[in-house]
Amino acid sequence: xxxxxIQTQSQSAEHTMARxxxxxxxxxxxxxxxxxxxxxxxxxxxxxxxEKFPKHIPLGGILKNDTRLVKFTPGEIVVRExxxxxxxxxxxxGKLRVVLSPSLPRxxxxxxxxxTRSIFEAFSQLxxxxxxxxxxxxxxxxxDELMAGGSNESARVVLQDIPTILxxxxxxxxxxxxLFGELAALGRIPRTATIFADEDAELLEIRWQGLRELRAxxxxxxxxxxxxxxxxxxAAHLLESEEFGHLDDDQIKDVADRCxxxxxxxxxxxxxxxxxxxxxxxxxxxxxxQGDYPDGLLMVRAGFARQTVKHGNGIKTINYLGAGNNFGLxxxxxxxxxxxxxxxxxxxxxxxxxxxxxxxRVPASVLAEYVFPNIETPVNTIEVASQKTIAEDALLEWAVxxxxxNGRQTMVIxxxxxVRCDDCVRACxxxxxxxxxxxxxxxxxxxWMVANACMHCADPVCMIGCPTGAIHRSMSGxxxxxxxxxxxxxxxxxxxxxxxxxxxxxxxxxxxxxxVDEATHRPIMKATKCDLCSDQLGGPACVRACPHDxxxxxxxxxxxx
Amino acid sequence: MTKNxxxxxxxxxxxxxxxxxxxxxxxxxxxxxxxLTGYTLIAVMLCVALLNTRKKLSMIPLGKASSWVxxxxxxxxxxxxxxWVHTNTFWPKGLYEGFLAGAFYLVSxxxxxxxxxxxxxxxxxxxxxxxxxxxxxxxELREIQEKAEEYIxxxxxxxxxxxxxxHYLNTMVWYFQKPRFYWSTLFGAGNAKVWFRSEGASVKxxxxxxxxxxxxxxxxxxxxxxxxxxHFVHQNLNKKWLLLHVPLSVGLVIMALWHLLLVEVYAL
Lengths: 561, 268
What we know:
The complex is a heterodimer.
Chain A: H1 2-12, E1 15-17, H2 33-40, H3 59-65, E2 67-72, E3 77-79, E4 87-93, E5 96-101, H4 119-128, H5 162-168, E6 170-174, E7 179-180, H6 182-187, E8 194-197, E9 201-207, H7 208-217, H8 219-240, H9 249-258, E10 260-264, H10 269-278, E11 286-288, E12 296-311, E13 314-321, E14 326-327, H11 329-337, E15 350-363, H12 364-371, H13 381-386, H14 394-401, E16 410-414, H15 423-430, E17 439-445, E18 448-452, E19 471-473, E20 480-482, H16 492-496, E21 503-506, E22 515-517, E23 525-528, H17 541-545, E24 551-554, H18 556-560
Parallel strand pairs in A: 1-22
Antiparallel strand pairs in A: 2-9, 3-8, 4-7, 4-9, 5-6, 5-8, 10-15, 11-15, 12-13, 12-14, 12-15, 16-18, 16-24, 17-18, 19-20, 21-23
Chain B: H1 2-28, H2 33-56, H3 65-87, H4 95-127, H5 137-159, H6 163-177, H7 182-186, H8 191-198, H9 209-267
Helix pairs in contact in B: 1-2, 1-3, 2-3, 2-9, 3-4, 4-9, 5-6, 5-9
């Protein structure tokens, strides 16, 4: 009897709710079974073999939960250049137009602002913050109008004066059946162009989780996505580069046709990195070996690569290359400039992939035709790097080893100035309902500590595998944020983060009662991390709160140098 | 930060010269310059005291806390100079004024002391090579003690000898129980090392080679505890001086406002 009473009491001290599942929050709230049937008979999708999809991720389920139908009227912007999006679009009918160059001005595309508290709302946190940890208004989890990343229909912008735009900007048509946006969705990079509706159009918007499943279980979609991904990336990358930026369309096409597009490392590099790091090993795929003769310029399109030279019994990192950097230009230029020279023209340094790297290999013949006649002698990076001592390069070596070079807003603390007052932690908690979103703890080199706070990485691997798209790039600023409403607490992001900067917390209702699954009575968890105070006034509170300027948010690429 | 303090100090000196010049002018005109210097002093004091409020309002964009600290430091030093200009003496007459001056000097000195020790302690903490969050120090010490006792148990089981176990119980457990040698650690005197060499390691001559292996593990734990103790001592001081400075500051402001009220009601 007493036991029963205790059990009843303990049960009454809990708040129960159904454990959120992957498709608990569909991408589009208005997708019906009829819509799915219509899509399955559409010419773009009817050839997909539904049998090849696993039972727990059926094709119908993907279409119903990971896609949504969106309609656009002429002038409405579908995607904006520079925005971070987590979805791709398939044109079901109608015609769109992509702005190639020059880009549309910011005000014309109505870049939307994300929610920021008013001064009163900010101030009211003094008395509205809950004294209990990790409390949530659980009623919000039942709302069915929640957005799961991707573009927000309510924030649509209509372009004015389209004829003028067509006059002043170079545009291209996107017809029925075209797929676009997959580059940004899969590559976790900003949209490269603005696309707007030229006439009434109906699109199927596929969040990246759905795109990933279609790619995984349908070979034709995989081929199409990969091919388009590579082609689009190559053309865009060449045009953006210093070496090829001056070429016209025909020349670019010629260069693109002769280039080789290569990928090193795996898309989900963090898993092998975590495993190998725990074993004290390193496994970096070699892109170019020191001592080999170069056959082309290597241009890094995405990811990071380590440039090394042999030093004693080890290898020394002299530089790391990110998107936009290239490798091997100097020896190739020397060979072209002095064809009969006797000097050793082999590569003086090696290049290896740090995780996932997209590389464009431009053959030497292309360089001789389009690049070398137009440039001065390029900088010999090895000569520059050799002027530095080992001690001077120690921070860089460490940052590369720990993959901190991925960080764009890394929290570094100068321990020589930090008085360990924890004002930064308190300020963070003050802006997050009493819950700090980072730990003043982390790896240390010299007097610098890299604290366990989200670094808002260039390559946010935490976003890979999120089943609901709850973790996403914010539309403005590119911060990596978690939508608490759609997070199902599966822990995928926390496990993926190589830096242990995402925490799973058990939530409680406003009265402090732990929220548990109504079926299993296991706690409901939510992923939490630093959001860079994106909804607060004045930017990251931790930086502003540091009384001795010891805490900084830095781009580690610049900091390590 | 030092640069900012230097820049703001120039403005502080200018402000002091302006107030001092006007006070002297008033005195020459047979006016009461104490009103000017007194109101200036209390205004600067109140502004300086706002730092703590700024800390509580971190969710509002009120500028960087480091800028406030710079103002706090320079403003605090300006207050000392203004205090002397206002009182024309080091220690004013009258019982209440004596208490007020005492509180003022205590607040000033504790502030200067706190600022200096914070600057010095940061480097000392960094030099330990480890980083421990203050609130976790009891837990860290407990873990070290548990690890030490685990070695002792293992040693006794593996060697069948209780020499090290008895020595631990009689001598070393005292050291592992909580932070020790507070003042010595604070001043970097190294008494903990001396104690371990003379008393802790005195057992070595009675240990077999197998037991010595366990003792070496114990030595490593002692070294680790010394570092954690260093964190405890310096972080403790970093926080404790505020327990003197902040309540005294509140008291000083209240006493100064009461002084102002009395002056307004009875003296003017």
